[in-house]
Amino acid sequence: MPEISIIVPVYKVEKYLDRCVKSILKQTFKNFELILVDDGSPDRCPELCDAWSRRDPRIRVIHKENGGLSSARNAGLKAACGSYIGFVDSDDWIAEDMYELLYKLITENEADYASAGVSVARSEKQIVLQPENKTVLLDKRGLFKKFFRVSDKEINYFVTNKLFKKEITKNIRFWEGMRFEDIDFMFKTLSRSTRGVYSNQIKYFWFYNENSITRSRLVQEDMQLLTVWKRIVSVCNKKYPEYMYFARMNYERAYMGLLAKGARFGVDNGYTGWKKDKKNLLKHLRRAFRELIRWKMPLSRKGLLCMLSLNPDIIALPFHLGMFTSRFRKKKAVMKIFFMGDFISNAGPGIANRLMREGLEPDKNYVYSDAKKKVGRIFEAAYKIMLADCLCICSDSQLNIFAVRWSKLLRKPVFYIMHGYRSLEDRINRMDVNGRYLRKGDWKKIRRTEVFMFKNSDRIFCVSKMCMEYMKKCEPEYKEKFDYNYNGVDIRKFEKDMKIQDFAPSTKQIMATGGGMKRKNNIAVCHAIDKLNKENELGLTFVIAGKRWTDMDEIKKFEFVQYYEDISREQTIAFMRESVLFVQNSLFDTFNLSIIEAIFSGCSLLVSNKVGAAGAIDSLGEDDQIYDPYDIDEIAEKIKSRLSCPNNMRLRRGITDEISNVVSAKKLVEKITEYAK
User: Fold this and answer.
1) Which of 124, 191, 264, 499 could serve as a FRET partner for 623 with CA atoms 20 to 30 Å apart?
2) In whole angstroms, what is the distance from residue 545 CA to residue 572 CA?
């Protein structure tokens, strides 16, 4: 006898059935039977079901006339022989160890049912991040509170991610002819349960189907949701009065859900009574508003409640225009991307973003941030996110939190170009970009914002391969999200405008950027040059360009240093052309455009192996890199070596096409388009 019976209703899913069945047959728990219930499917599903039953003796097939999802599940329940019952929808799939985990949880905890985490997925290739493992055992009161979402945001009505003891499902059947059969079935089984166990490990994958019931237009049958919840309220009133308030609040929320669906997806043309029903729904929702606004709901839901209570058409208009729907987006050959970030300043991210914009072909499918003032940026973000198919954030700002939440509310993918790792960089610098010393509260705010971006971005693009590898080690929880795409450089413009020379000028001037920033560690280079001047009487000078930072005063104590604050990019490049060597001794740099500019300005280069852009120079050797940014002797020795043996021409030939802004921007759009699908 099989220990578990897995019931799969089958109807018009010939494209997805094989994927579903394969995922079940791969289960590490082997003692099960798979019951495929052909619900009178008009396509090739009956043949596919029979073919699978011939391939594996654990598969049984039931052929019946079409009666709907509830009817098919009931047929499976009647035929089930296992001690435990599981359900899988035929267009979904499951992890290979799902039933092993659920069986272990239900037996070890002597529970009546066990539940696993779920994730919405567009394909099997989609990367799903597992949360930190957490298992919760609940008594009857806890089960009811979870069902009614008293202290939990997650919906707990679905049966497909669960394993039930057969004895608690005895004589319980799905409500045939009802659209929301899961809610009724779960409430009935819950009434018989004394213990339930929940794991947050994601094992069940709901296929994101544009044509599914939950994403289709509102039809008259959707009003059955009120009937289901009305029955639950009635049962609670008679048998479970302590849960009566919870049941009633969920009944009131059903009114809000129906109005929201009508606003978002529109109303089916065959629903002739919608005008009258809408009026009644709105009247009831306004009457229940005070109680609902005090109910434990996410802030976004409370905002939705306020808008719906005022007028559902407030949120209906943009949906009807096609701004939020993927059906509208699918009509376009190219995905519309909103690049939100700094495209104005002369800071590293601002320059990199402008180069990316120049690398992309002028196209109405790309929109960018243009507003300068804070209020204008907020309204611009809200509007352009509605117009776009996905959001790509390319700078660090508190506005990112609003933009991500707004995008998630509209179900749009979010991508993050990570120009800097502030959790590390600001801790090294001890100052922010405005020269203000950071306090303990500032660290927490910076870290909280960064973790929010890691957690809520669908993909994170580091701006160099070195940065990506480093981030995977530092943030293992999000390592599957990290990818890389080099910042772009306009190589053709460099070659044209910078009048490249075959050899660097024969001067004794060395240069660096970053000023007195701790992370750039120019103070160590100062000590190395001081050592060379004293021991070898080389008479070297050191030009440093950059803002005020913590090491500035100490750096200025060296007589050979020329420190320039707040100079333009053009002036910086002019100093590079006059210098024989450019040194970048960073403790950590996600990219650093300056080293590429220095090479094209004719400088030889000595760079820390902690600089991301160095990975794009194939001809970079060991003698061209600093491996210990604090080792004065190593820095001094390698400066002397580079002065006697220039490396400019060799490095220039080794720069890869990956950092061409045209190639880089094209690859970025290709990756965003691929992941967004």
Assistant:
1) 499
2) 7
Gap between the Cα atoms of 623 and 597, Å rounded: 20
CATH of domain 4-177+193-209: 3.90.550.10
**pLDDT tens across 433-467, in order?**
556 677 767 778 888 889 999 999 999 999 999 99
Predicted structure pTM score: 0.58
**pLDDT tens for each residue of 75-109:** 999 999 999 999 999 999 999 999 999 999 999 99
Positions of the chain with pLDDT under 70 = 122, 124-129, 151-153, 208-215, 314-334, 363-364, 431-436, 440, 495-506, 677
Nearest to 487 by CA among 624, 350, 652, 391: 350
Rounded to the nearest 10°, the torsion over CA 288, 294, 298, 299 is: 100
Identify which of 546, 534, 530, 500 has the alpha carbon closest to the alpha carbon of residue 649: 500
Positive/negative CA dihedral, 219, 224, 229, 234:
positive
Give residue for tokens 């006059």: 578
Cβ neighbour number for residue 257 with a 10 Å cutoff: 18
Please report, for the chain, the start and end positions of each structural domain, with discontinuous segments joined by +: 4-177+193-209, 220-320, 327-484, 491-659
Fold for the domain defined by 327-484? Rossmann fold (3.40.50)
CATH topology classification for 491-659: Rossmann fold (3.40.50)
Do β-strands 366-368 and 337-340 pair in parallel, antiparallel, or remain unpaired?
parallel
Q: Are 598 and 651 in contact (CB under 8 A)?
A: no
Alpha-carbon distance of 579 to 447, in angstroms, equals: 39
Tokens 């050959």 label which residue?
333
CA distance 402 to 378: 8
